[in-house]
Amino acid sequence: MNIAEGKPITDPKYYSEVTQNELEVIFRGDDNHTKIPLINERVRNLHQAGQVLLKKYQGTFVECVKSCSGSAEKLLRLIINDFDSFRDEADYKAYKVSFYKRAQILIGDIWACFKGHDYGRFNDIDYITMFADYRIPQVLIHFGAIRYSNPLLSKLQSDLELEWGSSEEVEIRGCSIDAIERVNNEVRKLIGSYPDLNLKETDINSTLIDHFLWDYRRQHAEELESIPFHKTRCIYY
Known about the structure:
Elements: H1 12-15, H2 20-26, H3 39-56, H4 61-67, H5 72-82, E1 89-92, E2 95-98, H6 101-113, H7 135-143, H8 150-157, H9 167-193, H10 206-219, H11 221-224
Antiparallel strand pairs: 1-2
Helix pairs in contact: 7-10
């Protein structure tokens, strides 16, 4: 069941009150029997997001974007402060680390869809890192940019799930972000070394590198099939 079947799932008034039964039908599998996982969390997240949009932002995320005056950093902070389900934070060796994957990809998608103009015009899009989940690490392993320890590799090859917030899950995501930032810096150095390319250092950023690697993985899916990727069931990917 979807919009074509009369369910206004994009309307915050609707999804702020949607029932679990309704949502299970909306997200039913093609066989009409398979149920979407984490249904309780999804209902709670939709309720909270819808209520915030209705109470603070005139029922539209456009107002969130407009209120940030072209700053990706401000929009990121607004999202994680106002919308609980985007608060992707973990404790790691006495430190609190944050990834904010879904919040950052939301901003990155707005920027990309509007091609850096109108609602997608952010004067600090460089503030956004790569979107740390499970597929980009697979490509980084392929290129030798990161490497798994033998015990971790054995776990992944055994198809064991990594708990969200576990040290291994945090390390995979954190190392992936660091690797992309290093690639970003190296590409900018190359741009500076070849002025005939007529490129600016600001023509490259972590969002674009993430998009490139994501597309690469899809285009070379068979080649990368033998490389295990971590599986984590959570609301933050």
